[in-house]
From TrEMBL:
The keyword Coiled coil does not apply. It is an enzyme of class 1 (oxidoreductase). CDD domains: CYP2C-like. This is unspecific monooxygenase. It comes from Cricetulus griseus. Its EC number is 1.14.14.1.
Length: 490
């Protein structure tokens, strides 16, 4: 038979199969735009700004609708009520990890971020317990963050008030905090290994948020068979993983069960204790991937938020002035800011919250999946269906945050100027899969930003009206445009 005829026959069968699957599934799932065979609704999604595409579709189909990313259905939840109902009210049923092909190839179902089921539950429970035991949310970790904040200040002083791109310096500080926790080591900002690790983490973050990776994650065969920047992610990931495996080996050789020094020691001790249990999820592979998760998430999300915060403070000097006035009144110049100060600094606290709300760092959250068949809002969602929860729609809700597209710390202040909490504040997600490092990240953002503003005036190289605060990419994360500024000592 002619090869061309065979090819046409195979393609025809695939199209018919696609149409049959879509038709049989769509009757049970929420409504949505009509998908095309094979590619689904992909042409209706702007891979440069997926969040905006979802908002536009929600205006047509409501707070719950179905998209086909390729041949697989994805249920999108848009708005506070739908997101809360799923992730909090039905937290257990929506606690699975949805499809993320690039991560699946790298992590192979291990770690804390992209695992599911009993492995995820055990790893998360152990990680949260160990981070608390090591001092997360306590004075010991606060001391570590304060010391790193002073190292950051000293590094910024070396710029001598000259224009600089803060990207690298702001990555070093949170990375050193997480390194201190997982293997009890901080690096000099000029250390060669440290420079290389930072470069690879930053590069992976940029690529994972690029339009090309949004395409790859929806058509996973591209990852295996096409050239592209996704191969750079694999190389960088393997480099970081190899470095962490070296650290694990060093810890194995010097381990003292009675005196654990850091996260790796605690895990190795737990692994020994669970060695008799064949069902145990504690293994060297799971440790390496969990460390990689903590290392990348603990570095990049916080450093990107810090960088975006400085850009917004340059754009809004009146906000910066009010924060610095509050720092002068509450902290002064003779000691380091502490977490105890936060309750007496409502405007600064509101500014940090508003930065996180405004920048909308992870606009569509990491994908969830339902862990069982579930009837939700009068629709039937089969077990394993990927769920996208739009955090943008919550953080930019105009009823909760008037003029949500405007950067305004007043969104988190009451009429008396006191700090005002909001249930809509979900930059770390919510429910069972809320970020394990939320407490540490909140501490770092407050202490790093207040320490910088205690010691420096921020000087822009351009007029405030010319400062662009729109993200350059809006995929997995929202990344700020590159910029320079001067840190002028006060």
């Amino acid at each position: 038979m002619d090869p061309a005829v065979v090819l046409v026959f195979i393609l025809s069968c695939l199209v018919l199969l696609s149409l049959w699957r879509q038709r049989s599934e769509r009757g049970k799932l929420p409504p949505g735009p009509t998908p095309l065979p094979l590619i689904g609704n992909f042409l209706q999604i702007d891979v440069k700004d997926i969040s905006r595409s979802l908002t536009n579709l929600s205006k047509v189909y409501g707070p719950m609708f179905t998209l086909y990313m390729g041949m697989k259905p994805t249920v999108v939840l848009h708005g506070y009520e739908a997101v809360k109902e799923a992730l909090i009210d039905h937290g257990e049923e929506f606690a699975g990890r949805g499809s993320f092909p690039m991560a699946e190839r790298l992590n192979k179902g291990f770690g804390i971020i992209f695992s599911s089921g009993s492995r995820w539950k055990e790893t998360r429970r152990f990680t949260l317990m160990t981070l608390r035991n090591l001092g997360m949310g306590k004075r010991s970790i606060e001391d570590c963050v304060q010391e790193e904040a002073q190292c950051l200040v000293e590094e910024l002083r070396k710029t001598n008030g000259s224009p600089c791109d803060p990207t690298f310096i702001l990555s070093c500080a949170p990375c050193n905090v997480i390194c201190s926790i997982i293997f009890q080591k901080r690096f000099d900002y000029k250390d060669h290994h440290f420079l290389t690790l930072m470069e690879k983490v930053n590069e992976n973050s940029r690529i994972l948020s690029s339009p090309w990776l949004q395409v790859c994650n929806n058509f996973s065969s591209l990852i295996d068979y096409c050239p592209g920047s996704h191969h750079t992610i694999t190389k960088n990931f393997n480099y970081i993983r190899s470095y962490l495996l070296e650290k694990i080996k060093e810890h194995q050789e010097s381990l003292d069960d009675a005196n654990p020094r850091d996260f790796i020691d605690c895990y190795l001790i737990k692994m020994k204790q669970a060695n008799h249990n064949q069902q145990s999820e504690f293994s060297l592979e799971n440790l390496a991937i969990t460390l990689s998760d903590l290392f990348a998430a603990g570095t990049e999300t916080t450093s990107t938020t810090l960088r975006y915060a400085l850009l917004l403070l340059l754009k809004h000097p009146h906000v910066t002035a009010k924060v610095q006035e509050e720092i002068d009144q509450v902290v002064g110049r003779d000691r380091s800011p502490s977490m105890q100060d936060r309750s007496r600094m409502p405007y600064t606290d509101a500014m940090v919250h508003e930065v996180q709300r405004f920048i909308d760092l992870v606009p569509t959250n990491l994908p969830h999946a339902v862990t069982c068949d579930i009837k939700f809002r009068d629709f039937f969602i089969p077990k394993g269906t990927t769920i996208i929860t739009s955090l943008s729609s919550v953080l930019h809700d105009s009823k909760e945050f008037p003029n949500p597209e405007v950067f305004d710390p007043g969104h988190f202040l009451d009429k008396n100027g006191n700090f005002k909490k909001s249930d809509y504040f979900m930059p770390f997600s919510t429910g069972k899969r809320i970020c394990a490092g939320e407490g540490l990240a909140r501490m770092e953002l407050f202490l790093f930003l207040t320490t910088i503003l205690q010691n420096f005036k921020l000087k822009s190289l351009v007029h405030t009206k010319d400062i662009d605060t729109n993200p350059v990419v809006n995929g997995l994360t929202s990344l700020p445009p590159p910029f320079q500024l001067c840190f002028i000592p006060v």
